[in-house]
Amino acid sequence: MEKITKRKPIKLKTNNSQEKDNEVEDKPISKLFMIAKFCVSLPLNLVSVSFPVIFICGLHFSCMSKNACTFLKMPQFPEFSKFFSWKSVGYVTGWFTFQAILSMLPIGKLVAGPRLDDQKKLHYRLNGLSSLIFTMAIFVYTTYFRKIPENYYKDNYISFITGSFIYILLISLVVLVHSRYTGSTKYGNSSGRLIEDFIYGCTVNARLFDGILDLKVFAFKAGFISWAVINIGYLLEAVETSGLMGTLDKNPSLLILVVLQLWYVLDAMIFEEALLYTASLSSEKIGYMFYYSVLCFFPFFCSLQAKYLFLFPRSLSWQYYIVAVFLYVIGYCIYRTSVQQKFNFRKDPHQAKVSGVKFILTANQKDILVDGWWSVVRHPNYLGDWMMCCSWGILCGFTHGIPWLWPVSLLGMLIGMAIRDDAKCKQKYGSSWEEYRKLVKHKMLPYIF
Ligand code: NDP
Questions:
Q1: For 311-326, how does the pLDDT look when each residue is reduced to its tens digit (9 = 90+)?
Q2: Considering just the CA atoms, what is the radius of gyration of the chain in Å?
Q3: Are 170 and 98 in contact (CB under 8 A)?
Q4: Pairing between strand 359-360 and 368-369?
Q5: What's the pTM value of the predicted model, to 2 decimals?
Q6: Quick check: 124 pLDDT over 90?
């Protein structure tokens, strides 16, 4: 299985596109062409920036009241003041700033992360779990003891989404300016086009205050924590209305869903170090799309299932719960063990290899794991993740499309990610990846895909 190949240093990509753009700019005729191209692409870019947020708001309109959580009826549109308020922008900004401060506190272990393109390793403070516990305690205290007016979150929900949109625009701008100013675009990550760099990012990491605030990792944790907080908010309100026993009796689905999703978030915070080794955190660029996915999609899209169950209490027959919990537990075991296997292999490859882990030697700095779940499918973590997401859909029943939007879209997303990652690894590891593909034939679903 092992192939002895001499290691070669990674060849850093040069910013060819920027060089080409500079060449083009010298020609006067091309300037007109560039302006025309900019005018055409501007509305398209505006649409791609605003559409995801409009989509999330639209889903919440479709799920505003007990009579309207369906795709089949036109949603009731609230008055303009519900869309936007400066107060909500202030709250959202304050909330994310609070999360940023928590992520900077010198609580928790300081660890070295994965090796970056420039061969350096950044250090990270593992304080996600303490941030989650502290935030939860404050949230439960302020909600339970009515420090915040009743129904405040519910009444201002849509303006929180638009508030987070504004925050995302601002933080993406900060990252863009910071990465250009500090020159962290030099590892071939910049497209050379400003708007594209803003939307898709032009750097993999951005840090402020002498490296204490990591603008990528903080947002990742803040998104997870916000989702958990929103879910707990729905559960607290249900318990307040019907009591704990009443919720257990009339809406056990909500209780189980919130517990399972809370465990998912808790797990991410407990195994925070392994998160640093995922492609999302170690090699993907940070721009508007990244911030949208972690600061808008996580909190406001992932909490839709809890909102749905809050509005439509569900008490399904026990077989549903057995199937859902079973699927979740199996999915969780696949997800956690596979993530941990890859993390151990990447963090300390020497130790993993001497302990007998099977791998393919590559010409790159890193080798390919062909052991455990990684010998069953090429993306076992995606499979586990999707199984957990389906279990949450089952808890909501099969009478509405909204709670199933996430499992369906996640499947599409993961298939796309698996195809892209395969192409990326093929480029990175060449014939060794081909060998891996021959040994492990399927990407995500054994015998299917
Ligand atoms: P992954 O952890 O899947 O990272 C992919 C990278 O892992 C590859 O680029 C490669 O990078 C390395 N790798 C792949 N195969 C092997 C192997 N056999 N041996 C060693 N290294 C390997 O990261 P992603 O960011 O793609 O996904 C992270 C998690 O986020 C997933 O679990 C996914 O399910 C989840 N996710 C969840 C969503 C949700 O809504 N719940 C949405 C999107 C993602 P390298 O070689 O450079 O180490």
A1: 888 889 999 999 999 9
A2: 23
A3: no
A4: antiparallel
A5: 0.85
A6: yes
Asked if residue 418 has its Cβ within 6 Å of ligand 1, the reply is: no
Q: Which two tokens stand for residue 362?
A: 């590559």
Q: Which atom of ligand 1 is nearest to the CA of 421?
A: 9
**Ligand 1 pocket test target in 298, 421, 434 with most atoms within 8 Å of CB:** 421
Q: Contacts for 143-147 with beta carbons within 8 Å, 24 or more apart?
A: 143/233, 143/236, 144/236
- DSSP letter string, 215-249: TTHHHHHHHHHHHHHHHHHHHHHHHHHHHHHHHHH
Q: Give tens-digit pLDDT for 145-185.
A: 776 666 777 778 888 988 999 999 999 999 999 888 776 66
Q: Which pairs from 400-404 meet CB under 8 Å and 24+ separation?
A: 400/69, 400/70, 400/308, 400/312, 401/70, 401/71, 402/59, 402/62, 402/63, 402/69, 402/70, 402/71, 402/304, 402/308, 403/304, 403/305, 403/308, 403/309
Q: What is the mean pLDDT of residues 32-46?
A: 66
444 lines ligand 1 (CB under 6 A): no
Pair of tokens at residue 122: 């950044």
Measure CA 250 to chain center.
32
Choose which residue among 283, 301, 342, 378 to substitute to test ligand 1 binding: the one with the highest number of ligand atoms within 8 A of its C-beta: 342
Looking at residue 154, what is its pLDDT?
73
Q: How confident is the model at residue 329 (pLDDT cuts 50, 70, 90)?
A: very high
Q: Is 410 in the pocket of ligand 1 (CB under 6 A)?
A: yes
Distance set, CA 259 to CA 25, 255, 313, 328 (Å): 57, 6, 16, 12
Name residue, tokens 């899209």.
Answer: 301
| Residue of 116, 278, 414, 432 with the most ligand 1 atoms within 8 Å of its CB, for mutation | 278
pLDDT-derived band at 15, boundaries 50, 70, 90: very low
The single-letter code of the amino acid at 304 is L
